[in-house]
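Colleagues,

For the teaching module next term, I've prepared a clean inverse folding example: a structure given as tokens, and then the sequence designed for it. I'd like students to try predicting residues themselves before seeing the answer, so please don't circulate the second half yet.
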């Protein structure tokens, strides 16, 4: 019990008591601790004392608040995170034939897949969006069947501009261009600042769709190692920029795919400063920024940009619906070139989805939806980690993302994820093998798992079957 006569403040005593319970496993990672009112009644203290105790535990990284849900025990970083890659600083062309050959199970959204980074229909506001699509087609029948030249719907651009404050910056609707998803935004951004043969610095591992874009534009890449928790190695990046001409930098600062890494504000600020010194535009794919598990959106790289050097890209594919194909870009000082490329490549983005999403954002529906799915994504990630830890060999390593829905796994040495993929695919099991995320056939003993579907007994069975295949390879060199 707490001692009111002690020199130690009551809130610190309570924090110590709860911390001891967490250490003993009374409250396991992912568990909700008792509510503020229940702790008040249990320990005979004020609400203020309980709140201060929870703040201490938050500062210690033991618990984390979830909006309107309470405080939950924070999953600690694994004792053995995946290794930081030893990437070469040599510029090279990208061979993307591998990604085209591999089926990640993206075809049927009704069937849960560990492969493609897609979310299940349970995490999409399908009924609400369908109602809005019908409404905008009824209210604007002509506009919905017309071209909408760049920069796109003013209603949607205004809605996106208003939400920029959540990411730490202010932008005018005139500085936003609507695209057919984030991939088009990234493609047009890269194309706007490069020409064939140029060199782009990328984080490693990198999202395979980015590698496809760079390959299609006949660009060379330099892979800069990325920490599985903190993001791109800025010291290595600066040395690369000092030694050779790099036309652009491309990465995902928030909840990177495949690692789930998220750069700190200090690292983001330093990255922008480095890019400014070397006049290298940054193409930042911020598609997962809204999917932070604790409800606090990390700041965008754009928040640290004062010169228009950051080209910020995003979409509503991960947060709302991949099928609507609505994204956006803030191309900064390259906007004129970007809009020209948009006209050349795709003319216009469909009007009805733009208007429906704008209405959903403006009505408050998007915020309510995010509060619901952020909790679901967190739960699904934690359950996937539990399944991997329970089914894969003991010396497996994995990341512990705090947002998004992909998990990066390092397999025990000697297990080749490409060979594993062939056997797994024959059993109907899908995952993304590590070499897909490398320009140089790296990450042979890594794989990425999708956590975008609600975790079920079927998911557990798939992970267990995959674990058995991996275990067989470990025991039989």
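(Answer key — instructors only)
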């Amino acid at each position: 019990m707490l001692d009111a006569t002690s020199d130690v403040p009551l809130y610190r005593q309570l924090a110590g008591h709860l911390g001891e319970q967490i250490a003993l496993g009374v409250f396991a990672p992912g568990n909700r601790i008792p509510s503020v009112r229940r702790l008040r009644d249990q320990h005979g203290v004020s609400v203020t004392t309980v709140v201060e105790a929870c703040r201490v535990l938050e500062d210690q990284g033991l618990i984390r608040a979830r909006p309107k849900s309470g405080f939950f025990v924070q999953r600690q970083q694994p004792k053995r995170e995946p290794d930081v890659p030893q990437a070469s600083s040599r510029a090279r062309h990208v061979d993307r034939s591998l990604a085209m050959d591999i089926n990640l199970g993206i075809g049927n959204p009704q069937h849960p897949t560990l492969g493609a980074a897609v979310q299940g229909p349970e995490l999409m506001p399908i009924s609400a969006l369908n109602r809005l699509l019908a409404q905008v087609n009824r209210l604007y029948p002509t506009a919905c069947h017309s071209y909408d030249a760049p920069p796109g719907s003013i209603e949607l651009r205004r809605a996106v501009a208003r939400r920029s404050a959540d990411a730490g910056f202010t932008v005018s609707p005139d500085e936003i261009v609507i695209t057919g998803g984030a991939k088009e935004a990234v493609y047009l951004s890269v194309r706007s600042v490069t020409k064939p043969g140029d060199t782009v610095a990328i984080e490693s591992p990198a999202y395979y769709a980015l590698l496809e874009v760079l390959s299609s534009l006949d660009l060379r890449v330099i892979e800069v190692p990325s920490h599985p928790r903190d993001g791109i190695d800025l010291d290595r990046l600066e040395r690369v920029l000092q030694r050779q001409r790099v036309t652009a930098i491309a990465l995902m600062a928030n909840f990177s795919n495949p690692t789930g890494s998220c750069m700190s504000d200090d690292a983001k600020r330093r990255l922008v400063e480095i890019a400014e010194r070397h006049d290298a535009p940054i193409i930042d794919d911020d598609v997962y920024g809204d999917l932070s598990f604790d409800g606090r959106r990390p700041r965008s790289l754009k928040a640290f940009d004062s010169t228009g050097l950051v080209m910020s890209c995003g979409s509503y594919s991960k947060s709302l619906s991949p099928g609507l194909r609505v994204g956006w870009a803030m191309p900064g000082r390259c906007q004129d070139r970007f809009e020209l490329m948009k006209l050349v490549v795709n003319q216009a983005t469909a009007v009805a989805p733009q208007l429906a999403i704008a209405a959903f954002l403006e009505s408050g529906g998007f915020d309510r939806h995010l509060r619901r799915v952020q909790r679901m994504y967190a739960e699904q990630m934690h359950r996937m980690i539990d399944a991997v830890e329970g089914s894969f060999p003991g010396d497996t390593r994995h990341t512990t993302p705090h947002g998004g829905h992909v998990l990066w796994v390092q397999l025990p040495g000697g297990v080749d994820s490409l060979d594993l993929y062939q056997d797994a695919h024959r059993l109907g099991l899908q995952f993304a093998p590590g070499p897909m995320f490398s320009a140089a056939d790296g990450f042979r003993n890594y794989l990425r798992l999708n956590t975008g579907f609600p975790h079920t007994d079927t998911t557990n069975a798939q992970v267990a079957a995959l674990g058995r295949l991996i275990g067989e390879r470990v025991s039989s060199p």
